[in-house]
Sequence to fold (279 residues):
Amino acid sequence: MKRRIGLTLGGGGVRGLAHIPVLETLDEFDCRPSVISGTSMGAVIGALYASGMSGETIRELIMRHTVSKSDTWPDVLRKKADLLKWVDALSLEFGRGGLINTDKFLSYLLSEIGEKTFEELETPLLVVATDFWGGEEVVMEKGELLPALKASMAVPGVFGSVSISDKVLVDGGVVNLVPYDHIIDRCDVSIVVNVAKARTPGKLDPPTVLESILGTFEIMQMSALAEKMKHLEPDIYIHPEISDVRMFDFNKIEDVFRQTQPAIEELRMLLRKNILENE
Fold:
């Protein structure tokens, strides 16, 4: 009997694009999950995958809107219309609570899949955000997708908070960077992908102000995750060693894919051991 697979995709800004080769590998092994949970960029990629998109299609969608190192001028010109949509979608908003308006960005991505609610998705999806004033985790799996995704990726100070059901919500990574605890009892095999930045012990360069803020945030997130894993271990845990890629380094997408490759080889081995050999 085929085992039910649960998939969790963690937050991490542009490093969250490391989830794409993971999805391509799951497709390669015909391991489509029966439930997905995600935080921040993991929630966004999870929504695309839960809509029925393949990992390969998601990669094509992302690469259509970015300029890679291997692109020639004719390649860039062919992408011009999509690149302009991307730039317009990531518009600055010097308003209360954040610098970037995510409405256009997420509306554009969701227009690519057509689904507007959780219920329309092919695979159940759980999206995690944080109740700012209550200091508690909020898990959303029903209703409109757009507000939930906006809330999950609302990094404080960068993206504005989102009000849903009388709560002011911010980035889910504040309380649960890798929310696999919400899928454990809904699957037979849990696959968890953490894309938090790899630390570099011994480095002596002083961080910038932004690096200090985001870096401290990431250290606290990883400490909380390490404590959770002492009490609740997933079946398959993948943490690509992605270094020198900050949360918003969208010019380093190819670096993310390249640095993810060793983790993909590990994932292939674990899939054979934990799933294929047990069917």
